[in-house]
Amino acid sequence: MGSTGVIGCNSLDVVRRLSPAWQVVALSAGKNMRLLKQQIDEFAPQYVSVQDEHSRQELIQLFHGRLPCDVGVGQAGLEEAASVPAHLVISAVLGAAGIAPTWRAISQGAVVGLANKETLVAAGDLIMEHVSVNGSSLVPVDSEHSAIFQALLAGKRQEVESFYITASGGPFRTYSVQQLKSVTLEQALQHPTWKMGAKITVDSSTLMNKGLEVIEAHHLFSAPYDKIKVLVHPQSIIHSMVEYVDGSIVAQLGNHDMRLPIQYAFTYPARVKLDLERIDFVKLRQLTFEEPDLERFPALRLAYEAGRAGGAMPCVLNAANEVAVQAFLEQRIGYLHIAEIVERLLQSSDYAVPRSISDALHIDEDVRRRAWLLIQKEELGQDV
User: Fold this and answer.
1) CA 190 to centroid of chain Cα atoms
2) Structural domain boundaries in the chain
3) DSSP of 305-325
4) Closest CA to 208 of 97, 126, 324, 128
5) Do domains 6-140 and 311-383 have the same CATH topology?
6) Per the confidence metrics, is the pTM higher than 0.85?
7) What is the CATH class of 6-140?
8) Alpha-carbon gap, residue 318 to 321, rounded angstroms
9) What is the pLDDT of residue 195?
């Protein structure tokens, strides 16, 4: 799910390398129909979903009117793609749009390779219960949680003292607040170590991405928030660490290539040779660490606060952030306004605890509506 995005393309490259042991049965994509056509030609899925009817018509034209597989449209098509019987479903749809299809994948008892962190942020308690009830399992695909997942193999869960999630610090790690006020969209889209989509690149620069990962780790590993620590690690070589009660620290290291954690999701608990550039420790010379500055990067603080508050607050955090980042990408608000909008929505929200995925999606929808209204009023210079 999300086959034409960065994670999706890397996942299909892993399938290509592991072929013929793995066969693609379904793909879902947004609007990049030319790339989707190439993927259909190569991997021959049974079912494909696209974002809208216009995209479907474009795909039909690319195949000269002869589609080689069934094609669904919109949210219904996405959920149908997630329901196609499969051993492994890679959930890489961006944002809250990935919640419902991930739920459907879990419902069929599949192993879910989770790259969509928003699913656990917005509905973590519900998702983890659903995993347990349906005999499914979640294997993290993002590098930080895959690192923790691997480090936990060294001991028992009750022996863990701390979880360390590393962050590159983003392109503005050394910026002052005054410099942050004038950050441009072009600057925010330049990540120092990873090649990612626009939304997650902006999230990485504000440290909101790390905040979402803290909440995700809380659910994935049943970890109390006071045991989850974030370390700024500019080299991005150590992806995460687990400290045990005896003082031992187990870390997972690797170069900046998403195919490593993605392939592990495919092959776990086994490991298969992967021809990637290896770390040269002599050339690397040093690894450095810093504490994150929560005053300059308040998004991380907001994520911890929302996570500890629980209930609907992580869902509010995620929805407000998605809207604020989109507004920044559209150059409707400034860089520092992203966290300000999120904080205002958190302070003014009092939703009941979501008891179902439908509840969580309704909260998500309402927060988005309120966030856009807030942005529109600010554009008009109105008091809110």
Assistant:
1) 18
2) 6-140, 156-254+282-308, 311-383
3) HHHHH-TTHHHHHHHHHHHHH
4) 324
5) no
6) yes
7) alpha beta
8) 5
9) 67
> Would you say 56 and 80 are in contact if contact means Cβ atoms under 8 Å apart?
no
Annotated binding site for Mn(2+): 142, 144, 213
Known binding site for NADPH: residues?
A: 4-5, 7, 30-32, 116, 118, 197
Burial of 253 (0-12, 13-18, 19+ CB in 10 A): middle
Q: Residue 3 carries which DSSP code?
A: T
Q: Find the length of the chain.
A: 384
**pLDDT tens readout for residues 51-107:** 999 999 999 999 999 999 999 999 999 999 999 999 999 999 988 889 999 999 999
pLDDT at 290: 97
Bind-site residues for 1-deoxy-D-xylulose 5-phosphate: 117, 143-144, 168, 191, 204, 209-210, 213
Token couple for 83:
């329901």
194 — phi, psi (to 5°)? -115, 145
**CA proximity to 322, closest of 380, 375, 383, 384:** 375
Q: Measured in whole angstroms, how far is the alpha carbon of residue 203 from the centre of its chain?
A: 10
pLDDT value, residue 315: 98
61 and 36 Cβ atoms separated by less than 8 Å = no
Select from 314, 329, 108, 125 the least CA-distant residue to 213: 314
Res 192: pLDDT: 65
Ranges of residues in the chain with a pLDDT under 70 are: 192-195, 382-384
Tell me how far the alpha carbon of residue 261 is from its chain's centroid: 13
Contact yes or no for 50/56 (Cβ under 8 A): yes
- Number of Cβ within 10 Å of residue 321's Cβ equals 32
Question: Taking the C-alpha atoms of 248, 252, 255 and 256 in order, what is their torsion angle to the nearest 10 degrees?
Answer: -120
- Fill in the DSSP letter of residue 69: S
Two tokens, residue 244: 């045990």
Query: So what's the pLDDT on residue 285?
Result: 86
CB half-sphere exposure, 49, CA atoms < 13 A? 20
Binding residues: 4-5, 7, 30-32, 116-118, 142-144, 168, 191, 197, 204, 209-210, 213
pLDDT in tens, 313-367: 999 999 999 999 999 999 999 999 999 999 999 999 999 999 999 999 999 999 9
Fold of 311-383: Rna Polymerase Sigma Factor; Chain: A (1.10.1740)
